[in-house]
Amino acid sequence: MAYTLDMASDLEPRITEDGIQEVPLTRARALLTRLIEQVREDGLVSALTVRGRRRAYLVTPGAFDTAQSDRRMVQAFHLAAGEVPKTESAEKFLDVMARHLMEIQDRDAAAAKRFADYEPD
Q1: Using one digit for the tens of pLDDT, what is the confidence trace for 44-101?
Q2: What would you report as the CA-atom Rg of the chain, rounded to the nearest whole angstrom?
Q3: Mean pLDDT to the nearest integer, 9-27
Q4: What is the 3-state secondary structure (H, E, C) of the chain?
């Protein structure tokens, strides 16, 4: 196979249409500090690729926490719809969700009490 200039450019990071910077895994090691700074300071998410396919993402801790929270919310919707979770930690998940619901009920009750006790000046 003949080497072309296009092949060399395939190894450089590039920003795709969805705004994600794709970085070949073979290049990521040398660029890792820069990639981490970009995601931390600029919010530029990087996807580490192997043969052009995304294999892992570099995201901020906040983005990861949001994704985990969204995942739990989707699971809660599935539970509410009567679907049985297919994970080993279903019991743990149910306990966590029950605690969250109790916290929400407590906050709502406290807010209702403050509203009932409110007297305008």
Answers
A1: 999 999 998 999 999 998 888 888 888 888 877 777 777 665 665 667 777 777 777 7
A2: 23
A3: 85
A4: CCCCHHHHHCCCCEECCCCCEEEEHHHHHHHHHHHHHHHHHHCCCEEEEECCEEEEEECCHHHHHHHHHHHHHHHHHHHHCCCCCCCCCHHHHHHHHHHHHHHHHHHHHHHHHHHHHCCCC
**Which of 90, 89, 94, 32 lies closest to 58, judged by CA?**
32
HSE, CB side, 13 Å, CA atoms: give it for residue 108. 6
Quick one: tokens of 112?
């209702």
Instruction: Answer yes or no: are the C-beta atoms of 21 and 45 closer than 8 Å.
Output: yes
**Tokens at residue 35, please?**
């990639």
pTM reported for the whole predicted model: 0.55
Strands (E) located in the chain: 14-15, 21-24, 46-50, 53-58
